[in-house]
């Protein structure tokens, strides 16, 4: 019964977070902002106001595929947000520019996250292979190596939290100070940003829970070997 509850949690929590962000986006993508600026215009204005003339704004395919690429110094917005002039488009565009501002200012958590990317990718790809072999073959040493690889990926997800929350705070500061949204639009804009942030919180929470479970399996295995 305990395992059923556990697996229900790690499956349902991310699904709930995804539903929340999609619901908030769907709702507020239908609410036009008072400035009537497209997401691309919002991004460009904030970038220029912060002296980031070298950062480009591009349209990209997909829905909610928006991101900032620090390698090419590019803010990429999904078509709906690039052309849309809704509160959701403004919020998401400003959030991605928040990452560009972090990059410009050498925000410590962003730098740390970038440094962890190669290790986190390796951990994500290799950890479960080692973990499954370690568990089924009852090889505690191999299981431990897999756990260590997985821990690197978990650290990456945890470090992502302050990066995302900070980018959202920067986004709110920018859209308010530049008059992109009115005071009565702040609440709705923050709802979009908070819903998006919850997906990262859910992912990090599930990753930590899974890491703890594997550590308990490892400790149980080593006790049986003694």
Provide a concise account of the structure shown.
The chain is mainly α and 226 residues long. Helix content is 74%, strand content 6%.
List descriptors.
single chain, 226 residues, mainly alpha, 3-stranded mixed β-sheet, 7 helices, 74% helix, 6% strand, membrane, transmembrane helix
Structure in words:
InterPro entries: Zn_peptidase_2 (IPR007395). There is one protein chain. With 226 residues, the protein is mainly α. It has one domain. 74% of the residues lie in helices and 6% in strands. It is built from seven helices and three strands, in the order ααβββααααα. A three-stranded mixed β-sheet has the order 1-3-2. Strand 2 and strand 3 form a beta hairpin. Helix 4 (87-104) crosses helix 7, helix 5 (108-136) runs antiparallel to helix 6 (140-177) and helix 6 (140-177) runs antiparallel to helix 7 (186-225). The longest helix has 40 residues, at 186-225. The mean pLDDT is 91.
Q: Could you report the average pLDDT, rounded to the nearest whole number?
A: 91
Helix content: over 70%
Class inferred from helices and paired strands = mainly alpha
What is the beta-strand fraction? 5-15%
Calculate the terminal CA-CA distance, rounded to whole Å.
Answer: 29 Å
Instruction: Tally the helices.
Output: 7
What's the story with the biggest beta sheet?
A: 3 strands, mixed
Report Rg. Answer: 20 Å
How many β strands by DSSP?
3
Structural shape: elongated
List unreliable stretches of 5+ residues. Answer: none
Number of structurally distinct domains = 1
The run of helices and strands is HHEEEHHHHH
- Strand line-up in the sheet with most strands: 1-3-2
């Amino acid at each position: 019964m305990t395992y059923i509850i556990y697996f229900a949690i790690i499956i349902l929590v991310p699904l709930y977070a995804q539903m929340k962000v999609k619901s908030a986006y769907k709702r507020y993508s239908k609410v036009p902002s008072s400035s009537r600026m497209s997401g691309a215009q919002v991004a460009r204005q904030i970038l220029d106001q912060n002296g980031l003339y070298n950062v480009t704004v591009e349209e990209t395919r997909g829905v909610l595929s928006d991101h900032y690429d620090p390698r090419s110094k590019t803010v990429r917005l999904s078509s709906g947000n690039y052309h849309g002039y809704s509160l959701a488009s403004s919020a998401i565009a400003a959030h991605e520019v928040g990452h560009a501002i972090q990059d410009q200012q050498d925000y410590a958590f962003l730098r740390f996250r970038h440094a962890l990317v190669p290790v986190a990718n390796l951990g994500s790809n290799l950890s479960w292979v080692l973990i499954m072999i370690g568990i089924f073959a009852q090889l505690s040493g191999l299981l431990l190596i897999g756990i260590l690889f997985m821990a690197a990926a978990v650290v990456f997800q945890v470090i992502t939290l302050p990066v995302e929350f900070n980018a959202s705070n920067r986004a709110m500061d920018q859209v308010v100070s530049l008059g992109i949204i009115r005071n009565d639009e702040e609440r709705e804009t923050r709802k979009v940003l908070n819903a998006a942030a919850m997906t990262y919180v859910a992912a990090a929470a599930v990753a930590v829970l899974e890491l703890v479970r594997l550590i308990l399996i490892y400790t149980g295995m080593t006790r049986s070997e003694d």
